[in-house]
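Troubleshooting: if your tokenizer reports a length mismatch, compare your output against this known-good record of 296 residues.
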Amino acid sequence: MLTKIQGHTYYYQGPTNIGVVRYKNGTVLLVDAGIDATGGRALAQALEGENLKAKYVIITHAHPDHFGALKWLKEHYPGLVRYAEEHEGLFMKYPRLESEALYGAVPLRELEGRFLKGPVVETDAVLEEGETEIGDKRFRIVALPGHTFNQIGVISGDSVLFAGDSLFSEEIMEKYGFPFLLDVGGQLKTLDFLAGLEVEHVVLSHGSQVYAGIKELCEQNKARIEHYLELVLSWCNQPLTREDITEEILKDSAMEVDVAGYYMTYATAGAFLSYLANRQELSKSVIGGKCYFYRE
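Known-good structure output:
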């Protein structure tokens, strides 16, 4: 079922919320696609129940829960035009890059499940930050790095922002505790940008509501990052390795993780450490075959 937000802008609520912008000719532009063929079929059924067909799709970032259904949708709608940011498009074309990046080598099999490795998907056009016209409608593409290096958001002509995973809802923060980030500095800048962005509605990829204002949510997200920055600094009053920090994060957040979840946490631990070390708030040394991080 499609839910109207404003004007010609709707969204389809699911495990990953999908933006829908209607055109006069009965076609739509999608923002993200969902995780797999099952999700793609459900989305197509909702569209066709309204006598609509997908003509365009923009992928906010190359995580499988956002682009995995695109392979099926392209087969169902052969004329579908696929858009993504250039670097995110490479991760869609070569989906093993995600698990290789997390592991740093040929990945463990546990890192190649459907949540980390999607199908091979080609894009038809590259999107850059700024104004763009697709069909007869204009959209604004905004850079939202942090969760991934080159995530984008999409603002429709109805002043609705589809924010991808640039902002975590209250329920997601409560459920997962520790955020998955690859660029802590980028995420902090993104949160400041979002807090000052003038739009009328915001749709998060994982959330049960459409937000009319997100300044408070931005502050909550920022406070969570700052909390873990302070914790990492306090833990590093004694020399610790990245593995040690990962262990401390998992204990503090009380997260029960499998192998894939461990390496996702390990990646984010690295993002926090590099942020602090590059700002010279932490020092680092290799001693006895281990790289330690510590406060002077």
